[in-house]
C-alpha cells in the first residue's frame, strides 16, 4: 500500500470520527482530493479491499458513486471538472466488477450502485461487455455472492432501460432468471425475488412498447412465455 492510499484510508477513517472538528477537516481534505487525478481509482481500491474495516469500505463505495456522478461524463448536468481519464475509467470498471462477489451484502450493494451509475453513462455503447459479464455471474451456481451482486446490478439497470435496450437483453436474460426463480433448492428467497423484479421491469417496458411495436414484442416474448407461465402458476399455488 503506497502513501497516497494510506492517506486516503486515514482520511476516510477520520471522516467517521465523532469529533466534529476532526470530521470536518477530513471531509474538506477529501473534497480537495476529489479534484486530483487518481482519486476515483483510489476509492475503488479501498472499497474492494477486503482486509480493510467494513465502515471505511462502505464509505469509499458511497463516495465513489458521488464522484462518478460529478466527474464521469462532461455532457451530463451537474458535471464538475476534472473528468475521469479514460485509463482510470477502465481500471475502476474492472475493480468494481471483480468485487461483485463480496460476502458483505451492504458492500456488494454499494458496489452494484456504483456499477449501475457508470452504466447509466457508458452502457451499452462504451461498455458492451457489462451485461455478458453479469450474465456469466448469475449462471455460476457455485458463487451465490456473485449472483447477488450481478442481480443487484441488473435490477438497477432494468429500471433504467429504454425501448432500444430491452429487446437486446431479454432473450439472453430471461432464461437465466428463470433458472434462478425455478430453483428454490439452490437460490434463496431474496435472489428469486430480485430475479422476478427484473422480469417485471423488463416486461413493463415491453408492455409500453407493445402499443407501437406489437408484432415485434409478441415475437420477442412468445417463445419465452410458456415456462414462465407455468412457474408463476406454481408459485401462486
Biggest beta sheet summary: none
The fraction of residues assigned to DSSP E strands is: under 5%
* Radius of gyration, in angstroms, nearest whole number: 20 Å
Number of strands: 0
Number of helices: 11
Uncertain stretches:
none
- The overall average pLDDT, rounded, is 94
General shape: globular
Order of helices and strands: HHHHHHHHHHH
Helix content range: over 70%
For the record, give the distance between the C-alpha atoms at the N and C termini, rounded to a whole number: 55 Å
Structural class: mainly alpha
Model description:
The chain is globular and about 60 Å long. The longest helix has 23 residues, at 214-236. It has eleven helices and no strands. Helix 1 crosses helix 2, helix 4 packs parallel to helix 6 and helix 9 (166-181) packs parallel to helix 11. It has 237 residues and is mostly helical. The protein starts with a helix and ends with a helix. Helices cover 71% and strands 0% of the residues. Residues 26-102 form the Importin N-terminal domain. Keywords: Nucleus, Transport. This is Importin N-terminal domain-containing protein.
Q: Can I get a quick summary?
A:
By secondary structure, the chain is mainly α. It is built from 11 helices and no strands.
Keywords summarizing the entry:
about 240 residues; 11 helices; about 70% helix
List the helices and strands and how they pair.
Layout: H1 3-14, H2 20-33, H3 39-48, H4 54-71, H5 86-98, H6 105-122, H7 130-138, H8 144-158, H9 166-181, H10 189-209, H11 214-236
Helix pairs in contact: 1-2, 3-4, 3-5, 4-6, 6-8, 7-8, 8-10, 9-10, 9-11
Amino acid at each position: 500500500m503506497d502513501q497516497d492510499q494510506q492517506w486516503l484510508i486515514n482520511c476516510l477513517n477520520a471522516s467517521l470520527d465523532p469529533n466534529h472538528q476532526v470530521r470536518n477537516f477530513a471531509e474538506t481534505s477529501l473534497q480537495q482530493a476529489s479534484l486530483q487525478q487518481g482519486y476515483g481509482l483510489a476509492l475503488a481500491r479501498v472499497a474492494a479491499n477486503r482486509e480493510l474495516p467494513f465502515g471505511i469500505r462502505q464509505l469509499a463505495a458511497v463516495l465513489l458513486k458521488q464522484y462518478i456522478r460529478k466527474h464521469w461524463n462532461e455532457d451530463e448536468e451537474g458535471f464538475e471538472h476534472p473528468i475521469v481519464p479514460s485509463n482510470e475509467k477502465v481500471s475502476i470498471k474492472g475493480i468494481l466488477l471483480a468485487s461483485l462477489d463480496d460476502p458483505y451484502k451492504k458492500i456488494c450493494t454499494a458496489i452494484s450502485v456504483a456499477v449501475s451509475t457508470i452504466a447509466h453513462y457508458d452502457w451499452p455503447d462504451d461498455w458492451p461487455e457489462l451485461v455478458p459479464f453479469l450474465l456469466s455471474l448469475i449462471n455460476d451456481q457455485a458463487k451465490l455472492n456473485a449472483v447477488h451482486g450481478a442481480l443487484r446490478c441488473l435490477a438497477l439497470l432494468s429500471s433504467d432501460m429504454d425501448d432500444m435496450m430491452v429487446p437486446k437483453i431479454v432473450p439472453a436474460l430471461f432464461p437465466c432468471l428463470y433458472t434462478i426463480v425455478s430453483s428454490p433448492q439452490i437460490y434463496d428467497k431474496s435472489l428469486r425475488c430480485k430475479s422476478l423484479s427484473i422480469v417485471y421491469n423488463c416486461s413493463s417496458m415491453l408492455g409500453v412498447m407493445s402499443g407501437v411495436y406489437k408484432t415485434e414484442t409478441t415475437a420477442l416474448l412468445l417463445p419465452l412465455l410458456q415456462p414462465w407461465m407455468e412457474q408463476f402458476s406454481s408459485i401462486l399455488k
